[in-house]
Amino acid sequence: MDAILEGFAERIRDAAARKTPLRIRGGGTKDFYGQALEGEVLDTRAYAGVVDYEPTELVITVKAGTPLADVEKAVGERSQMLAFDPPGFGQGATIGGVVSAGLSGPRRQSAGAVRDFVLGVRIVDGRGDDLRFGGQVMKNVAGFDVSRLVAGSLGTLGLLTEVSLKVLPVPVADETIRLEMPQDKAIETLNKWGGKPLPIVASCHENDALTVRLAGAAAAVASARAKLGGEPVPGADIFWITLREHVHMFFADGMPLWRLSVPSVTPPLALPGEQLVEWGGALRWLRSNADARTIRDAVAKAGGHATLFRGGDKSVGVFHALTPAIAKLTRNVKAAMDPEGVLNRGRMYPGL
User: Fold this and answer.
1) 6, 27, 173, 316: most buried by Cβ count inside 10 Å?
2) Has residue 143 got a pLDDT over 70?
3) pLDDT value at position 144?
4) What are the structural domains of the chain?
């Protein structure tokens, strides 16, 4: 094992022996996300660099402490990209933090989530064992897919040390249009368009304006542009970056921010506060001081779940409560991967 990895493993074994929690941390740009932070910091940034990159195979393998910006630069130089459009929320973001948080940007509407692009991972578990799951090809999955389970686990199952990700070519053509319409009409329109062969890769509705990103073959984008109408958006790349990184004016104030995941056809949610709609209607951002029960009851009634993404009172639970069956399975997986419960203890759910 690499000397740095051995050092990580020793830290974990020592923490397990002392039953002292460790807080796995890269750039710390997502420290706000999840329940309260707990434990001694285990900094991953010393283990950084590209392990392997095969542009013709559309696969890159990198060490978890590698800055997200470095990964994006490496694939961008070959006209490729991380299609799930990961938010960094700061210059220090690492690829390990991206995968562990499991967050995707506006392009998730068409490309898929982080876990859909994770081909394999290397982790150090709660015993200090160096483990590998998955591989570097899409058809390498057999049985329980631990590599995808790690995505979004917030470091509670192990210290992510390496990850293999599928990348995609940058589209030849990319245009953004804007149309004026209320939220109910925008949701209806997006779902209607979603059933047609249109190259829509991202969407955003806020303040009675629907912004749509078209990307793909030049002919397809031009055809869609003619069919959908709307006005071109100048500086569109900046718009989508500000949306992804939450520096768009909608996210500017200090009100509690909720992330509401619902079926895309769900009509506008009658909740106090301001809303911004993404992912064709499936993601609703809500700025509101309403109590958690009001918000979660409304979202559950629609068949979705609500996450207290930033700010607010975390004692209400950041993530939607698990069903008894899923809670039991989650505890069993945690016990198998981290018997002493020292890795990012309580980061997702209290007591886990």
Assistant:
1) 27
2) no
3) 56
4) 3-169 (3.30.465.10), 173-315 (no CATH)
